[in-house]
Amino acid sequence: MQRSGRHTIVMLDDDVDLLESFRLMFRSCFREVFKFHGFATLDEASAFLRGERCDIVLLDLSMPRGPHENIKQLRQNTTARIVLHSAWHDLREIAADAGADGFLEKPCPMIGAEIHRLCG
Q1: Which pLDDT tens digit goes with each residue over 34-47?
Q2: CA within 20 to 30 Å of 105's CA: 53, 85, 98, 116, which one?
Q3: Which class for 34: exposed (0-12), middle (13-18), buried (19 or more C-beta within 10 A)?
Q4: Domain spanning 7-119, CATH architecture
Q5: Whole-angstrom Cα distance, residue 98 to residue 16?
């Protein structure tokens, strides 16, 4: 995992408006620290990850196929840390059961700091 320079973040969420909001936030607030790529489907993200180095994958819990299957497919394409994000109240247990490396509850007002911490 990168220790200096910009960290690469991939976000998977089928809510394209949320993806756009995160893209704008990362571009305007965290440009010097993070490179952000957002995808609405697991297949798009997997294709990107096969050819790119990534530090963190933010995976929406509600993506089709479910967290177990999604994490399994992502692990075939990247060594990045996989972090589930959702507004579900039992996200900690779901993330641990699915094999995620961490979780972020929505809303996540401190997302930049938390992702930076996860990047090491």
Answers
A1: 889 999 999 999 99
A2: 53
A3: buried
A4: 3-Layer(aba) Sandwich (3.40)
A5: 24
